[in-house]
Amino acid sequence: MFTHFKNDSVRKLVVGFGSLFNNIKLLQKDENNNDRLIPVPLSYATKEKFVKRLTEPSSISDKTRVQISLPRMSFELTGLMFDPTRKLNKMNKRVCNDGTNGSTMFAEVPYNFIFNVNVYTRNLEENFQIMEQILPYFSPEFVVSIKMNSMHQSVDVPISIGQTTLTQEYEGDFSTRRFIVSTYQFIVKSFVYGPIKTDYIIKDIDITLFQEGSIGITFSSEFGLTG
């Protein structure tokens, strides 16, 4: 029943989701009080791991210890669940051919993927500025097109925003620096795909018909079927 196949549909979904937030910039003042735009770095990491890296300096040598600079952003896939409202007949097949081989795939399975995006800043003003670059695009959905596999070249994936939280991390003594964390939850309505089966295309069929008291009649025809 279970055979190995590799579509990378979940990996492509994670990459496609993360690409939505890899071009966010923050307006700051330089030492001459001039405006400058700085890109906000994005990485795939859990919130707990990122907060620990912010509060505990890491060692790059025996004598040098550094802390991560802010602002920063991270995102993670936190869960997924089957969506029965988008379920299709599991016996439905998608068929396509390239003139030589024919490919078939059973109906895709709908799943809702839950992502969290975390924004880390030094103050509220910077956090609000990044918030304004995210929220207006989700009203309440934003649709991206992703190439999932050879039979699904352009799949429209709706992304809707859910709960948003804003917290201040200030536990510790007076020497511990404070930072602001805002978390955005997103629901991504996508699919999981099964294996693609490839067969040769039947191009010619020879049929001989016989009728009582008559000679046989033979003819050939072309079909675009797989066998």
Short key terms for the protein model shown above:
STM4215-like; four-stranded antiparallel beta sheet; 14 strands; mainly beta; 227 residues; 48% strand; six-stranded mixed beta sheet; elongated; single chain; disordered C terminus; 3 helices
Describe the structure.
By secondary structure, the protein is mainly beta. It has one domain: Myoviridae tail sheath stabiliser (STM4215-like). It contains three helices and 14 strands. It has helices at 9-18, 47-55, 124-134; strands spanning 25-29, 35-39, 42-44, 58-59, 65-66, 72-82, 93-97, 101-106, 109-121, 141-146, 155-169, 179-192, 197-209, 217-226. A hairpin with a 5-residue loop joins strand 1 (25-29) and strand 2. The longest helix has 11 residues, at 124-134. It is elongated and about 105 Å long. It starts with 8 loop residues before the first helix and ends with a strand. Residues 223-227 have low confidence and may be disordered.
Topology:
Layout: H1 9-18, E1 25-29, E2 35-39, E3 42-44, H2 47-55, E4 58-59, E5 65-66, E6 72-82, E7 93-97, E8 101-106, E9 109-121, H3 124-134, E10 141-146, E11 155-169, E12 179-192, E13 197-209, E14 217-226
Parallel strand pairs: 3-6
Antiparallel strand pairs: 1-2, 4-5, 6-9, 7-8, 8-13, 9-12, 10-11, 11-12, 13-14
